[in-house]
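dude i think i finally got it to work??
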Amino acid sequence: MNITEVKQILSQGEGRLIEFKRCRNSLPSSLYETIVSFSNTDGGTIILGAENDGTISGIDSNYIPQIITDLATALNSPDCVTPSLYLTPIEMAFTEGKY
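look at this
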């Protein structure tokens, strides 16, 4: 996925296969419900650091390594998600605002 594709997704808005999640310095608790929902259907795209209207609010860059670690740990923990899931986080730089 590249920046052009992400901008297109942001402009489409949320839907059955697209979800935006605010994520400034930690993973939102509703993220796992969305991940499981997508994994039990046709899949989907989750954009962290975006508001429900598609506006980029961003993720504090100091927290990105911890957020990725927390996500990987949770998705490999049977206490959170069973069976374990494999996701590929992609980090992209954007300026805050609407696309």
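Residues 7 and 99 are 6 Å apart (CA to CA).
im so relieved honestly
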